[in-house]
Amino acid sequence: MSSSVLLFSVYVSTCWIILSTTTRFYETKRFSKVIQTLSSLLRQFIIFALILFAFIGFFKQPEISRLDLTKYFFMSFLSVSFAKYLLLFLLNKYRKVLGGNFRNVVVIGDNQKTNQLIETFKERSDFGYKFLKKFCVEKENFTLNNCFNYIVENDVDEIYCSVAELTNKQLREIVNFTDNNLKVLKFIPDNKDIFTKKLSFDYYGYIPVLSFREIPLDDPINKFVKRIFDILLSLFVMVFILSWLTPLIFLLIQIESRGPVFFMQKRNGLDYKEFYCYKYRSMKPSTSSRQTTKGDARVTKIGKFIRKTSIDELPQFINVLKGDMSVVGPRPHMVKHNEDFAQKVDKFMVRHFVKPGITGLAQVSGFRGEIETNKDIINRVKYDIFYVENWSLLLDIKIVILTALNAIRGEEKAY
What we know:
It is a single chain. With about 425 residues, the protein is an alpha/beta fold. It has 3 domains: about 5-95, no CATH class; about 105-215, AF0625-like (Rossmann fold), CATH 3.40.50; about 220-410, no CATH class. The chain has helices at about 5-25, 35-60, 65-95, 110-125, 145-155, 170-180, 220-255, 300-310, 315-320, 335-345, 360-365, 375-390, 395-410, and strands at about 105-110, 130-135, 160, 185-190, 200-205, 205-210, 260-270, 275-280, 325-330, 355-360. About 25% of the residues are buried. It is found in: Membrane. This is Undecaprenyl-phosphate glucose phosphotransferase. InterPro entries: Bact_transf, EPS_sugar_tfrase, Undecaprenyl-P_gluc_Ptfrase.
């Protein structure tokens, strides 16, 4: 391969990745229309054409002509367009014919817009929504508690509300319920008060629908980028650190306390699913599930050191490689503690919209270790929710660097 062709390949590939990530080009929504997909293609390739023909001006390569670039442009446009529409077609058929990838939905409100939306759900099975029930707010026997019980009992995924029929108090109750029960909340807009929130606006057919919370890691490209970052960093740590550190830690642990080198404990992860979290054992074998406190007699001498430097957390890179955790995310708590916090702390469950992490924004912001007061867990949840709603790869890298620096310096609450 000539140097010109190699340079062109690297240039085009890099620019396409950056452009596609910025424009969310590969995002395919359930309700995407043919015309919307075409609009997305045209916007993408207009910008791509400018980037493509800028190659000659930037690098002045005599081996690649404008005619070659024109041919490459049209081949790229046709192949990507075909792939894009084929994916859209296959996903629609998968939902419509095979009945897969459906989400259960309920509608709160009884008016023209809610009825139109329900008809859309029923007629457009290719959207992948299974309508279960409509709750009429004006009926005498309507209560939000009955509505919430039905949602939980029937495994409802998404709730659509007509804000025109609900009071501000009812809206707050619905928002709190969805946050604390991992349900997706969307509004059929009519009330100006709701527009003070940062909302995502889409059309289902001709019905406007607002999504209450936009989570960056729901985007397939963002999810893929984060997963690649997790895998690469995990493999590096396992090959160059855990491979020699684990036997050494095992020998040091045996001097004080006979038993396994790893300690496994059930934690709640993505969508509140349970998994076994790995750590180097830093305490004497015990059946107690209480949090570690300062001066805890269960902690061994070597355990104090590896906890102070956060070395005990390194085996969680195994969890990351397995897909149970991410390098960065809300720290997972023990199942018993999660149950307690979910009852006491508002919006605690929002943390579980993403994978838990070995480290997190709350931890590098001073809220790691023992929960001594309600303020500790409330502030931890605030930082976790900010991370969930504002994720970026640069934020992950910043948190990893701060975590490494804190481990070198040692932290006050690392005991």
